[in-house]
Amino acid sequence: MKIAVIALGKIGLPLAVQFASKGHQVVGVDVNESQVAYVNAGTEPFPGEADLADKLAQVVSTGNLVATTQYDDAVSGADAVVLVVPLIVDSEARPDFAWLDSATRSLAAALTPGTLVSYETTLPVGTTRERWKPMLEEGSGLVEGRDFHLVFSPERVLTGRVFADLRRYPKLVGGLSADGVRRAIDFYDDVLDFDERDDLVRPNGVWDLESAEAAEFAKLAETTYRDVNIGLANQFARFADRNGIDVAKVIEATNSQPYSHIHRPGIAVGGHCIPVYPRLYLWNDPDATIVSAARSANAEMPEYAVGVLERAHGALRGVRVAVLGVSYRGGVKESAFSGVFPTVEALEARGAIVVVHDPLYEDAEIVALGFTPYRLGEPVGAAIVQADHAAYRQIRPTDLPGIATLVDGRRTTVPEDWPGVVHRVIGGGES
Prior knowledge:
By secondary structure, this protein is an alpha/beta fold. It has 15 helices and 15 strands. It is globular, with a radius of gyration of 23 Å. The mean pLDDT is 96.
């Protein structure tokens, strides 16, 4: 097959590589000329994605993957087009379709008969049918269901482990017609491999959810569940702090019973997914009080963590405080909706002198985000662990000379390693 993948970012590029590795001719489209140049050179444009560097070099060397900035080169005559352009959201995660609309119009202008079009970007329910179908038909002059087929098939992977997740999880598909769904099932069966899993209600593979709306809803439901679950865990953690209980032991005990699966509490919920997709769900269902309450509870956690520091340390005005971690998640160089931003804001509101460290970021990159860089070994009065980087499991008081108080928002450290330092964790029973 000739396959076009639109947007070669942290999800789109591994997808393009996966399709090409199955022997298909893949053309990737990206508006970023630098990204296109990296791909055509067979060079990984961003770090941290397992196996991407080797797989990318291999499929580029065989000629199975090329990249371009031109939609016509990729889309015209394609058997399938997979679109993973990000949905822009504002600070409140309200959707702005500008990038997706632009990509869809460019796709429509190059669309030719016989093509399967699959959107993998997470969307509010109803977007595929109500927004993309008429836009594609108007821009192409073609009729969906007759001249081309349109489906929604959400990505369900985490950056850093995309190839493993593609094998691990069923591929969900929802279409606008039975023929479109059959085309999509055949397509994804051909380009993906699936691990055997005896824990699923049906064999791992491509699952037809019977409508685009159901597939859109499934993606929002699985991520919203995680946000609500973390919100509950954070509420439990705050109760545990007020009552001298270690919530981690409570959660471990509770989860020993198969009907309970309480997630871990922590300083923040960040990234492109969990803090965003519940807002997209609320865009469709604004009366979902449980969802909105959980989102609010999680958004409050950076402020709560700073309050834990203030109670343990005393007044923070004039105190040099190191925030350890720009990334929203350990091992991933990504700051989208990271807890670093509200944590720094809450510290500065108390008059602290805030410095920021992250082993994955250069000083210039930290400055570009609006922070003052910190290097281990420089004196500080207090610190907050914001990201669970593996490196932070190895830090000790000698790395933070002068530190009097440490608040670990991710439970990456243990009190025994911090003699003479007031050590607090969220939900540790000492606030």
